[in-house]
Every structure is written in structure tokens, then in C-alpha cells.
Amino acid sequence: MSFRIAHTIVRRVAAVAAAAVLLLSGPHPSAQSASPSTTVGSRADRIDRLDRFLQAYIDEGRVGGLVAVVLQDGQPVYERALGWRDREARDPMRLDTIFRIASQSKAITSAAIMMLVEEGRVRLADPVSRFIPAFAATTVAERTETGVSIVPARRPIQIRDLLTHTSGISYGTEAHIAKQYQAKGLGPAAGLGWYFADKTEPICTSIETLATLPFVSHPGQAYVYGYSTDVLGCVVERASGLTLDAFIERRITGPLGMTDTHFYLPEAKRARLAVVYTNDADGRATRSDDGATGQGTYVDGPRTSFSGGAGLLATAHDYARFLEMIRRRGVSNGQRLLGSRAVGLMTTNQIGDIRATNGLGYGYGFETTDRFGANEFEPVGAFGWGGAYGSIYRVDPSSKIVMVLMFQLLPRNSTDLRQKFGTMVYQAFAD
User: Fold this and answer.
1) CATH number of the domain that residue 380 is part of
2) Is 90 left (phi over 0), alpha (psi -120 to 50) or beta?
3) How many domains does the chain have?
4) pTM of the model
């Protein structure tokens, strides 16, 4: 063998070894995007495409950092921590970084309600007033040609209305009701409506106040996204006799080993909480302030109000454990947390075409995909949701895929990362 040939072989072996190290560790926060691959036939090529797609958002400054986790049949097939947990402190993102997951809390609270349904403590058809008497006579703010008319709701709000966001309860930020909500410490007075972390009163006290305010639609008539799951959090407390955080820890996060999922972060974990960013006029991420629409009070707050609709913090891996239990129809490590019928109701459309989003419905806790192509590459039967800070997840039972993407950008609609992530995962891992 000539010296030139031997030298070439050594160089190639070194290049392969270096590539393996990069694959295991993930790109450095300051790494530049690689040039596009010219071959896309193998699984490795397609994973490389996913890597470059995510890294581009870091390199272009559109997000500070992110964590992506993909499970297939319960096994991690993709794990990346890219960019910065705290860019200004030059603290890199890690797989165990903790994120504010906002509305991803809703699925966990919905699972808690379904557990109580299975125990006979709650019925899906129960009026909410059975647990929160203030809901016995709710009202609706109807728009008229001359203004707004406050009228009695046509029927009581039921538990199933809350699970599907068809209760008529919004976040109180609409112009015709915003002032009333603000006066009661809700709506515009609560950040973007959903923020409870700074409140010094228990969640049920806030929900009893909510019951006195007008809603924006009659029960069962429209899909209205808002405080419905926070109301369910109060129902969990009233039906179980436990605070919401205690119930969720005892029945869901504890059994699943979700040790980094909390409503308020223990002081010892402060340095693992990701920083929240926002976008400037050029679309580049800049550090948010410390208020309700920024860093929030998830460490130093009063630790009193447990928001079932938007209050939890978690790692990507913790949340993937919860989703894997749902994908397995309620079973985790041989232990059944939920019955398969309950999971079936959670993950299939329960509102017909009320949501009218061309093939996307809503079950008792998850958005559902009812038509292939309705949500990019998702097949019928897939489900998921996301959070206001930028996190998103999807579950595809047919491919046994669970995907979780976490980042902290508010408002997160300033980037298309969420919209493209699922497609990039599917092109790499769906057979």
C-alpha cells in the first residue's frame, strides 16, 4: 500500500470519527449550518437534513436555543440540544433544560379529569356547577348591531365542553369583554390571558371569579380557546380533594418518572430553566423582560395558583414520557394509568366540524388529524398540540412516533419552526 493511499484512509477514518462525535454531542451553539447534502437517499442523509434545518434557526438568530426529542416505539431515535439556554450568559442548551410548556399543560390536566371519570367521581355530562356552584347561571356577551348584549347561556356548561374548548370561555382579551376581565384580574390583566403564576389566590378562587364574567359563545356552539382547562383544574381539586399539583404528581408525573415537571421550579433547578426570548423587527431573538409575557415568576412566584391550562414546566424527555403513555393507550412500563377507552376519547375528534379547520378536530384534550394532508405530512389518527412559548408535540400511532420540540419565544408565531418541524421529522423517520 502506498503512503498516499494509506494517508487517505487515515484521513477518512478521522473524518468518520469526527462526524460520530458531532452526531452524539449535537452542533455547538455557535456552529454554522453545513452546506446542503447532495445525497438524500439514506436515513443518515435525512437525519442530517433535520439537523441542518434546526441549526439554521440558531445560526440565523431566530431562536436562542431548542431541544428536540423523537421517540419511535418508545426508544429515542433523535435527541438534540442546540443553541443556548441563556445566550447572554453563554450557557448552552442541554437535553435536561427545563421549559415553560404553557398550553401543553392542558393534555396533562385533561388526563387527570379522565382518571376521575374512570373512578366515577366525574361524568363527562356533569354540569360544571356540580363542582363549582358559581357556574350554575353563566352569561354570554352577544354582539349586536347596536353593541353588546349580555344574555343567559342557553344551557349549562358540561365537563365535555371544557375538554373540547366548546364551553364558550375565551381568555377574555376580545374587545367587547376585555375591560370586564381586566377589572377582575383576568384577560389583559393576566399577561396574554393565560398567566396565573403571579397570583396569590388558589386557582378555584380565580375560577369562581371567572364564572361571574360573560363568555363569548353559548356552550356547544363554537370552538373557543381559553380558560376551559383551568376550570377543569379546579374540578380536579374539588372532585379529588387534592390540590392540582398534588394530584398530578401522585397520579401522572410520579408514576411516569417525570421528575422535572413542576408548576413552580425548585430553587435548586433554577439554573436549568431556559430563558424566554422575543423577536425584534428584523426577526432576531432578543431577551424578554421579567414580566408575565417574559420570564415570568415560575421560580420566585407565590407558588399558590396551579394553572391546569398553562402553568407547567417540563423537560422535553419528561413530556415525551407522558405522550408515550398516551400512545400506548394508557400504559407505561406495564402499569395502566388510563383505560384505552378514555385515551380513545382524548385522541379522536369529539366535536364534528365545529372547529372547521379542514380536517383538524379536537378530542378530550388533544387536537386530532382527521384527514391525511390536513396537517402537512400527518396521517389520520395523529394528534398533538403546543404551548405559547414555542413548544410543540405530535404523536403518530401508525408510525409509533412521538416528537417533542421545545424552545422559548414569545410570541412564537414570529417563526415557522413549529409548522415545519413535524414534516422534517416525518421525512427522516416515517417508513
Assistant:
1) 3.40.710.10
2) left
3) 2
4) 0.90
